[in-house]
Prior knowledge:
The structure holds two protein chains of two kinds.
Chain A: H1 2-17, H2 20-30, H3 32-54, H4 86-122, H5 124-139, H6 142-153, H7 157-167, H8 170-183, H9 187-194, H10 199-235, H11 247-254, H12 263-290
Helix pairs in contact in A: 2-12, 3-4, 3-12, 4-5, 4-7, 4-8, 4-10, 5-8, 6-7, 8-10, 9-10, 10-11, 10-12, 11-12
Chain B: H1 2-27, H2 44-53, H3 60-72, H4 86-121, H5 126-140, H6 143-157, H7 175-209, H8 212-219, H9 224-262, H10 267-276, H11 280-308
Helix pairs in contact in B: 1-11, 4-5, 4-7, 4-9, 4-11, 5-7, 6-7, 6-9, 7-9, 9-10, 9-11, 10-11
Subcellular location (chain B): Cell membrane
Domain ABC transmembrane type-1 (chain B): 94-301
GO cellular component, one term (chain B): plasma membrane
Amino acid sequence: MNASTNINVKKKDILKKRSRKNILLQRLSRNKIAYVSLCFLILVHIIVFIGPLVWKVSPTGLQDAGALANWSLQHPMGTDDLGRDVFSRMLYGGRITLIVGLAAMLFALLIGTIIGACAGFFRGYVETVLMRFTEAMMAIPNFFFVLVALTVLGTSPVMVVIVIALSGWMEIARVVYGETLKWKEYEFVEAANASGATSIRILTKYIIPQIIPSIIVSGTLTIAAAILTESAISYLGMGIQPPTPTWGNMLQDSQQYIWTAPILGVLPGAAITIVVLAYNFLGDGLRDALDPRFVKK
Amino acid sequence: MLKFLINRFGQSIILLLIVTVITFFLINLAPGGPSSTMRMDASPEERQAMVEKLGLDQPVIVRYASWLKGAFSGDLGTSFTSNEPVVQRIAERLPYTIELTFFTIIISIIIGIPVGILSAIKRGSVPDHIINFFSVVGLSVPAFWLGLMLILLFSINLGWLPSSGVGARGTDFDLWGWISHLIMPVLILTTTILPNIVRFTRSSMLEVISQNYIRTIRAKGAKESIVIYIHALRNALIPIITIIGVLIPRLLSGAVITEAIFGWTGIGTLILEAARGRDYPLVMGITIVITIVVILCNLIVDIVYSRVDPRVKNV
């Protein structure tokens, strides 16, 4: 009696261990770089979001230490050309840069998933129109589109997010399109169809849940691209405008002081690079973990 | 082949039309329209005259139709800021961008394909990990940041290379002046597409190596070098042609930033000027010309691809 329940428990454990999420996490934890990146990103987000609650120096207020002060206990990273606390600006700037990246990613995922799923599911005219539109958007070099759109729509943070998302959803749409085409041929979708489920229900309850792993991979890589785009347009002076700090426009400000205070240029540049790197490593790690062909022995 | 060509050409035209619609309507979303960028002291009558002269009092559809009619006969309108024809302004700048991107593509291919193959055949080894690591680093470093660091090192610290400009052209042309101005911009632009080429080559090669016919050749006892270089490489190289087409838009995006860093007077700095001056006809013209370039490159890639790979003929 006892023995048989033991066996049952073990079976349950094994089944639980082999669930898709667990397999994914196991494979991811074997990829050291991706795992370290994940931990690092969690840490960065905690610092950037909790940090300003602890470090109460204003990012825009002028400090008594004066302009371009060296690092000290009051100002761990010194002050910038106008005498503002650099550490505080890094925290607030990071907050905005990361929020812009995340928000742009979410919005791009929304557009990409809807367009890709509809094109793959409905076929016919819908497919032709949506996929031609996607191709046309891909043919416009991303940065030209962003510059044109920002000129027209203005450079408020919300517009920056929208424009970056509008320029970056096409890859997601193509991935979702391909996956939808694949999954809609499966028997369980046919069964749902036969039992009278509506198209929208089949899409949202049966097909899209199967695509979520691929969407997560695309999303992770999209955040990296969005942060890079944001910093590049800020560098060109067409992004979120000062005094609101972002890592991109801090870098633009620092250019003229690269000799007298190189740290002003090094810090935001390094922060962007490391965070984008971590997102890219994480995205790659997730992709490998999800790819059945390249299982590590 | 002819049917394929006509088909692809027709598709390209449709694609181009969609792009013009997207850009035209996007630009005309602008609150106030171009007349809002006139001199601040312009009287309402002057403003009205400007609006009528530019045809802004007509519905968007009518303006789009007349713009399209002009575009078909090679007239993209007149630049607001310089009063020169848009076509002329673009024609002055485009050769510089083509020069920059041409050398970038050549260098990226020469470096990228062998590195990608090495990474694939030594899969899982130390060189493979190093190559993968640097590919991701290359994709992650902001180009403008890297550009600034290079200027610091080579122009300010060492004084070897000029930090901006395109060098003397025309009669005072000298070879070293030309090359020295090209080195850093090409280097920066290369980092934006090289990682993609390396990774694509690697996955294409891995795909081919895992196929049955490679296993058959190995089973017959062929030497590993023959398997890789004679049998696998030829098939692996075919899909790489397609990535060149995909990378062209990316390359042109990168050119905007690269040209801005190094003061390279190409199409990238032109669109920045146009965007800052709200020069809508110029912005529109540049977008269309750039899209035509992209679509033409894709068309050429498709044709080459269908010639090289007999399986894709009449798609």
